[in-house]
Amino acid sequence: MKNYGLYILFIVFSWYSCAPSAGEKNTFGTPLRAPEQILSNVMGFMSYRQDFLKLAVDYRTFDTALHPIDKAAFLEAFATGDYLPLRITGNDSAISYKLYKLPASTSKDVANTIRYYGEAQLKNFKREGDKFPAFSFSDVNGTVYNNDSLKNKTVVMKFWFIHCVSCVAEMPRLNELVAEYKDRKDVLFLSMAFDRKDQLVNFLKNTRFLYHTIPVPESFISEEVKVSGYPTHIILKDGMIKKIPDGAEELVDALEEEVPLK
Fold first, then answer.
1. What's the pLDDT at 39?
2. What digits encode the pLDDT tens for the residues 149-202?
3. Is residue 240 within a helix (H) or strand (E), and if so which, with residue range?
């Protein structure tokens, strides 16, 4: 009975612990957030996704037994909705994930959310190395951008539209990123929105956004670039897709890997 009570205390402690405490031994494979907390409901997973799930940067991947596996196999397992990519401590500063088999008690809503996100991440991973589609458009100031504009540059692209709340909310952080790279002539920040030019001009009068903004047909974004959600960020190098980060903060980290500031 005494041992059972200790087991319950351990479960309760794990539930409320997001990371190992300062005095806890930081051994390889220790979860940075308890899987029970992550899988408790959809918001638990979404919070974990925002804080710990960074799949557009370099990371190490392991199976359920902590054996190294390649990234493609890892993401394919994630996309089934049967596994959680659990962030764990490593032997060094590298980001590490292991596959964690979802318990049978996991709700369908949580499992479906994990599968949906996993499918998107697998799709993004498979696009790395693809050539960006041909284009030639003028930005709101009349400057023409085309595939030649991408040569010998790292291009940070954002796809959005004016009435996308999350697209607008991240603009201050993106402006900070542009300012950080202002002296890097080899880095170009472009945004493509499917609003009309006059709408974008009026929007930009009241909302500061430092990307070069280009009005384009929605069909170009959805059919040529194959973007289905907004905002979407893509990092290109010499016209080839390098990374498709999930949100502004992951974009910051991914760009730092591609083009270190220091």
1. 97
2. 889 999 999 999 999 999 999 999 999 999 999 999 999 999 999 999 999 999
3. strand 240-243
Which backbone phi and psi does 95 adopt, to 5 degrees? -75, 135
Question: What's the CATH architecture for 136-258?
Answer: 3-Layer(aba) Sandwich (3.40)
- pTM for the model: 0.84
The answer to whether the CB of 194 falls within 8 A of the CB of 218 is yes
DSSP state for residue 68 in the 8-state scheme: B
CA atoms within 13 A on the CB side of 11: 7
SS3 for 192? strand
3-state secondary structure of 71: helix
Contacts of 192 (CB under 8 A, 6+ apart): 137, 157, 158, 159, 160, 213, 214, 215, 216, 220, 221, 225
Token duo for residue 25: 């031994």
Number of DSSP helices (H) and strands (E) in the chain, helices first = 10, 10
Are 121 and 81 contacting, i.e. CB atoms less than 8 angstroms apart?
no
CA dihedral 221, 226, 240, 249 (to 10 degrees): 80
Phi, psi of 49, rounded to the nearest 5 degrees: -55, -45
What are the pLDDT digits (tens) for 231-257?
999 999 999 999 999 999 999 999 999
Per the CB < 8 A criterion, the answer to whether 140 and 213 are in contact is: yes
Chain centroid to Cα 170, Å, comes to 13
Query: Which amino acid type is present at position 4?
Result: Y
Q: How far is CA 90 from CA 13, 26, 93, 190, in A?
A: 22, 9, 7, 36
Question: What are the Cα distances from residue 249, in Å, to 1, 122, 124, 170, 252?
Answer: 47, 20, 17, 9, 5
Domain ranges of the chain: 2-127, 136-258
